[in-house]
Design brief:
Layout (H helix, E strand, L loop, with lengths): L23 H6 L14 E7 L5 E7 L1 H4 L4 E6 L10 E4 L3 E4 H8 L4 E2 L5 E7 L2 H8 L3 E6 L6 H4 L21 E4 L2 E8 L2 H7 L2 E9 L11 E6 L5 E5 L4 H11 L7 E5 L15 H11 L3 E4 L2 H7 L6 E9 L5 E13 L6 H9 L6 E10 L13 H19 L3 H8 L18 H10 L1 H4 L7 E10 L6 E7 L5 E5 L7 H13 L6 E5 L16 H28 L6 E3 L1 H4 L3 E4 L2 E7 H6 L8 E7 L7 E11 L6 E11 L6 H20 L30 E6 L21 H13 L5 E2 L3 H12 L9
Parallel strand pairs: 1-15, 11-30, 13-14, 17-18, 21-22, 28-29
Antiparallel strand pairs: 1-7, 2-6, 2-8, 3-7, 4-5, 9-10, 10-18, 11-16, 12-13, 12-15, 16-17, 19-27, 20-21, 20-26, 23-24, 24-25, 27-28
Helix pairs in contact: 10-11, 11-20, 12-13, 15-16, 19-20
């Protein structure tokens, strides 16, 4: 990581304000265009035929009855796709993926690996005819045994999904270690001696369920293949370039022949930066010569797109009586789904990083099971590993007789400490955050009733940089057009425009910000990992510097002086005036220079592609109050306060919204959400009626406390804000339940049935409710 400081303190003119969201009215009035708003002349509609089996060999596919349905124009299977032209491509948050796995996940060719795996697709005049025809595609399967529990999948003699596989490489590469798993090992110090030196050792086992990101908009794409063999794709995605690159490989095409137009996105959270329907719609469009639109139902989204890993873990942590952490030993089994590449690496790396522990062993496995291929979900892997560690940390603090925040303060990683991967911790307010938690009125407020408890937790996420491109164009009236390749998931057109206005020294209202398609802007990595405001903002600041330098040259031309004699006040005064160093009264405003572009050489524009390395870490902490009903096991959240160090908060209201949204998703993960598979290996709760996500009626107002430790790796001190808020809530809830009713929960979700079982076990009663 580049530790050269780029942050320059300045008086902010635009950053830190809270202007109204420009796309807000369009989105609430239906003017904004999402994937389902694409309607092209002569357009067909596609439907997917999906496997009802979790594991089966495809013996034959008969499409004759489907093709005979009036209005059906084409049916495709895996056999219709060409050989791949690229084995591995960059994808997700800094890792790489096997293109064969991505292609096979879109449509199975020989074997299906999960309930909902695509085996064929139909294009017809309307979606109803397509659905009718899809039901007539006859697939003969040879049913195979299946495995959906990571503990079973790593046993000797387990059902093997793939005879051979490319080990997963999500963030860090794993090594092939077992027939169904890749392995990642991290170690520092002497863990055996560390436990010998410890006075108190806690050892626990945990499970967490598979959960989905829960974005409201499903996956929707429309493809048109023109007579010159060019493919145009309108799709809902977190990364238009990723979709283009995947399509080029799967369809064996040149990148320049594919144009991907990103539509507005109705939620992604890590689940929309890969292809599912796009290759199918593209091939159907090629076969029919007509545009083809495809949209997933809610059941298809839950069955066939990538959820987040369920896990099994063994945790052993030891400390001295004074609370000093001495050693930690983690054994982690993370679901990868049907293909390698789950978030074992970020899960392992985020498990202990916020604490200084001299002796650590982490033994992690990326385990394939007969479930959909896993996708990131906000700080992928970190929520699960935080839950297992923060509950043990809480128990150690209790056994030491220490306040839980004091225990964490005693062991908190600080700037300059070296992480287990050899990376030094850059400046961030770890101690300041924990002190803020302890000083907050919520921490000492009365709980006010029986069966009520308060819990805390503390979390970490790395953040991401990676490549971003932008263009700035100055208009003759002094206004500015800003174009980027970053999909806008959460209002980033505004936060990027704010950075452009700050850097150029112009009013925010003079900046028009847009998201370009893949033919119109330089390569830009996906909007993932909380990277957009950081990395794309970095590129914008650099482009703005080029603009101001070019405007200085124009001013020098007008004044007939050397450019070295021209200063710009944007950085020091926040407003772009150009000043003669030899005559401070000789000035030209930004708009005056823009108005004279034609006579001084023509338009002024700049583009910049950045890959910034000064990623600022993210930390968060929670205080959570709960009330537990001992008769039903229901857990009610009474009060919740979220703390987060966000660097410079560009738009504090947006930051608070990210924190609140992440917390709510974390609470759903904690209390309700889980994939339920029946004995046949089929997903039994593939609707939002049965897959229970929290609503506004379930939760109190989430209070937020924003801390701002500038990130030295960004000119404006910005670090990402969207990932880490989801990480600490499950542990905070678990620790609050312990303090409410005296039981330590070791599973997610902590549903009423699970809490009742824990209460009965504490009282020595037999469980009368079966909880998976």
């Amino acid at each position: 990581m580049n530790m050269e400081p780029e942050y320059k303190p300045r008086k902010w003119r635009v950053l830190g304000t809270t202007p109204a969201r420009r796309d807000g009215i369009d989105k609430v009035t239906g003017q904004a265009k999402f994937g389902d708003d694409v309607h092209l002349p002569d357009m067909l509609h596609g439907k997917v035929v999906r496997s009802p089996h979790p594991h089966a060999r495809i013996k034959s596919i008969d499409i004759s009855k489907a093709m005979a349905v009036p209005g059906v124009k084409a049916v495709i299977t895996g056999a219709d796709f060409p050989p791949l032209n690229q084995a591995v491509v960059a994808a997700g948050e800094g890792g790489s993926v096997s293109m064969q796995d991505i292609a096979d996940n879109c449509i199975a060719k020989h074997t299906v690996f999960y309930d909902g795996h695509a085996v064929a697709a139909v294009a017809a005049e309307n979606p109803h005819v397509a659905e009718e025809a899809a039901a007539l595609v006859e697939v003969e399967y040879e049913i195979l045994p299946f495995v959906q529990d990571v503990r079973e999948a790593v046993k000797d003699g387990a059902v093997v999904l793939h005879e051979d596989f490319v080990p997963g490489a999500f963030l860090f590469p794993t090594q092939k270690a077992l027939p169904n798993a890749g392995r990642l090992q991290l170690a520092v110090g002497d863990v055996e001696q560390g436990f010998k030196d410890a006075d108190i050792v806690v050892e626990r086992e945990y499970t967490t369920a598979t959960v989905h990101q829960g974005y409201i908009e499903s996956h929707i794409t429309t493809c048109r293949w023109d007579s010159e063999d060019h493919l145009t794709v309108w799709t809902t995605t977190q990364g238009a370039f990723a979709i283009r690159d995947f399509l080029a490989s799967i369809l064996n095409m040149q990148l320049s022949n594919i144009r991907v137009i990103p539509m507005e996105i109705g939620g992604g959270f890590g689940g929309k930066d890969v292809v599912y329907l796009d290759p199918l719609a593209a091939l159907l469009a090629k076969k029919t010569g007509r545009p083809v639109k495809m949209a997933m139902s809610r059941a298809e989204v839950l069955k066939a797109t990538g959820p987040s890993s369920g896990i099994y873990a063994k945790v052993k942590i030891g400390c001295k009586k004074d609370g000093t952490l001495m050693a930690a030993d983690l054994y982690l089994l993370f679901e990868a789904g049907a293909y390698p590449g789950g978030p074992i690496a970020p899960g392992a790396l985020c498990a202990l990083t916020r604490y200084q522990i001299p002796n650590v062993v982490i033994d992690g496995y990326d385990v394939m099971v007969n479930k959909p291929k896993i996708k990131p979900y906000r700080a992928p892997g970190a929520t699960q590993s935080n839950f297992i560690v923060e509950t043990v940390i809480d128990e150690l603090a209790e056994k030491c007789g220490m306040d839980p925040i004091d225990f964490r303060l005693k062991n908190a990683t600080v700037a300059g400490d070296v992480l287990i991967v050899g990376m030094p911790v850059p400046p961030i307010g770890t101690v300041e955050m924990l002190q803020a938690v302890k000083k907050h009125p919520h921490y000492t407020a009365p709980l006010g009733g029986p069966n009520r408890g308060r819990g805390v937790s503390y979390a970490f996420w790395f953040g991401a940089g990676l490549t971003s491109s932008c263009e700035l164009h100055i208009n003759a009236d002094g206004t500015v057009n800003l174009a980027t390749g970053s999909a806008d998931l959460s209002g980033t057109r505004m936060t990027l425009a704010m950075q452009a206005a700050e850097a150029l020294g112009v009013p925010l209202g003079d900046i028009s910000s847009s998201v370009s398609d893949t033919d119109s802007i330089g390569y830009t990595f996906q909007s993932v990992g909380s990277r957009t405001t950081f990395a794309t903002g970095y590129a914008i600041i650099k482009a703005a510097e080029i603009i101001l330098d070019r405007m200085k040259q124009r001013v020098a031309m007008i004044w007939e002086t050397d450019v070295a004699n021209v200063d710009c006040t944007a950085e020091v005064a926040g407003i772009a005036d150009f000043v003669d160093r030899n005559d401070p009264h000789r000035r030209m405003h930004f708009k005056e220079v823009a108005a004279r572009m034609d006579e001084t050489g023509g338009p002024i524009s700049a583009d910049f592609t950045a890959n910034p390395h000064g990623v600022g870490f993210q930390i968060a902490a929670n205080i959570c109050d709960v009330e537990v009903d001992p008769e039903t096991g229901k857990v009610q959240i009474l009060r919740f306060t979220a703390f987060q160090d966000v660097g410079k908060a560009v738009h504090p209201d947006y930051v608070a919204g990210q924190m609140q949204g992440g917390v709510v998703q974390g609470l759903g993960w904690a209390l309700n959400e889980e994939y339920w598979y029946n004995k046949e290996g089929r997903l039994a709760n593939a609707s939002l009626l049965d897959y229970r996500m929290p609503t506004s009626l379930d939760l109190p107002m989430i209070d937020t406390v924003i801390l701002e430790t500038p990130n030295p790796g960004h000119p404006f001190g910005i670090r990402g804000a969207g990932e880490v808020p989801i990480v600490p809530p499950p542990a905070a809830v678990a620790n609050a339940i312990k303090n409410a009713v005296g039981v330590r929960m070791n599973r997610l979700p902590m549903s009423p049935g699970a809490v009742l079982e824990a209460l009965w076990a504490k009282e020595g009663k037999p469980a009368s409710v079966k909880v998976a």
